[in-house]
Amino acid sequence: MKTRFSIFTMALVCLFALYGCGSPAAAAQSSEQVNITWMSWGHARPQEIRNDALQMAFPDAGYVIEPVVGGSNVPEVIEKIRLGFASGQNLPDIFQTTSMFFPEMVTSGMLADVTGIYERIGSRLLGGMRDLCTYNGRQYAFPYALNTLIWIYRQDIFDEAGIDASTVKNIDDFIAAGHKLRETFPDAYIHTGNVNDHADYFNWCVPGTGMNSLIDANGNYNFADKPEIKAVMEDVKKLYDSGLVYDVPAWTPDWEQGFGSDKVVSYLICNWFKDAAFLPNYAPHTAGKWGATVWPAIGGGQGGAEFGGALIMVLDNSPNRDAAIDMLTKLTFTNEGGLAGYASSGNSMIPVLTEAYGDPSVMAGDEFFGDVFWQAEMDSMDLFKMWDYTPAASMEFDIIKSYMVRYLSGELSLDDALNRAQRDCTTQIGNPLDM
Predict the structure, then answer these.
(1) Segments of 49-171 assigned E as strands
(2) Shared-domain flag, residues 349 and 392
(3) N or C: which end of the chain has fewer CB within 10 A?
(4) What CA–CA distance (Å, rounded) separates 16 from 292?
(5) How far apart are the C-alpha atoms of 178 and 186, rounded to whole Å?
(6) Taking the model in full, what pTM does it have?
(7) Among positive and negative, which fits the CA dihedral 402, 406, 412, 413?
């Protein structure tokens, strides 16, 4: 496996040298329109919204975003980019991914280094935004969103049940609140998701304990005996086994309908769940009834992130490289661009500059949550912590998750699950820093 990846990496470097020979033709700003292709996953609407914001805030810039749907999910987009790297064909000007795949993309040598822009921005970025886009001390991307951890709950139902969310500090308090909820609402659940969903919390919550790497300085996997991991996963299993979780897979009709039927009245999730496609779509009649705060401590640690966040990268050998960087700088690192994106998206795409995030239009919140989500999101950004992902991160966490499922379902002890996961990472990947 290690040899295969080494050959693949060498091939990418050689192809990049062939494909990128000569300086890329920078698209100078002029009166001519520059169409910039932007690849993402799912559907084109987010990029259409970004283009609406671009035209609203900078109508004379001369840029138009052309959305490219690279697949239904992030791995499918990454596979398209890998194939494009290898062939030198069908590559977009910019593409979007999540933190887990970022180191792999940086080490391919194909990304534009935009560190100079961050040096000019200085301390104006919201907490975590710079870290999201940094690899080995330099920046190779623009922030799209941090996936911070937010607990949402039905304030009206909690009030009737006598539950004060502000007193829930750890997983034992959370479970106690779930039992108290059942006393008044016997058919309600304080959380939802099946065993596969809970296995992801390894990725989400371990950085909250202060541990953020699976390897030592030499690239050896050394996570099996870490007490931080054990504490997190023991808390996750305690919750999953409590009988207080609506045990259905996320993103299924039963799961979605649970939010609108007063069955799921509380959920440990991420800040993006506020978007119009999610909770406001599943339970529109519950508008104004939700509270929000940060997650309780899991495994003794607080904070973390769902796979870090989403970020946008410019291909260094794109003929529209300079235009794409200028366009993303305008959209991302100006108050005008950030607030236009917030308005165009129906208040879901938050600005990344502190002064724009503190604008009255942002602080007012939205029609569904009011202003309660804004404060919770701000607090969650202060607790944003993510893994120091390696270029093999997607393989590592696929391996680990498969064993966490077996632990949570009772098939393996936690020690067995972690030891087997570490063994498989070592044998199947080798040293991820050599990839």
Answers:
(1) 63-69, 94-98, 134-135, 138-139, 142-146, 149-154
(2) no
(3) N
(4) 47
(5) 10
(6) 0.86
(7) positive
Question: 100, 96, 350, 292: which is closest to 204 by C-alpha?
Answer: 100
Tokens 């870290």 sit on residue: 131
Q: Are 44 and 52 in contact (CB under 8 A)?
A: no
For residues 370 and 168, the answer to whether their CB atoms sit within 8 Å is no
The answer to whether position 41 is within a domain reads yes
Radius of gyration, CA atoms only, the chain: 22
pLDDT band at 228 (very low <50, low <70, confident <90, very high): very high
Alpha-carbon gap, residue 100 to 94, rounded angstroms: 18
Angle at alpha carbon of residue 226, lines to 224 and 232, rounded to 5°: 105
Please give the torsion angle defined by the CA atoms of residues 122, 124, 129 and 130, in that order, rounded to the nearest 10 degrees. Answer: 0
The residues, any chain, with a CB within 8 Å of residue 141's CB and separated by 6 or more, are 102, 111, 114, 132, 133, 311, 312, 313
Structure tokens at 33: 């329109």
The two three-digit tokens of residue 262, written as one number = 């007063």
Cα–Cα distance measured from residue 272 to residue 96, given in angstroms and rounded to the nearest whole number = 16
Half-sphere exposure of 54 (CA within 13 A, CB side): 23
Residue range of the domain that includes 245: 149-304+388-434
The 10s digit of each residue's pLDDT in 114-161 is 999 999 999 999 888 999 999 999 999 999 999 999 999 999 999 999
Between CA 374 and CA 71 the distance in angstroms is 31
Distance CA(248)–CA(355), nearest Å, equals 41
Q: Which residue has the tokens 């907490």?
A: 127
CATH number of domain containing 268: 3.40.190.10
Same domain, 234 and 194: yes
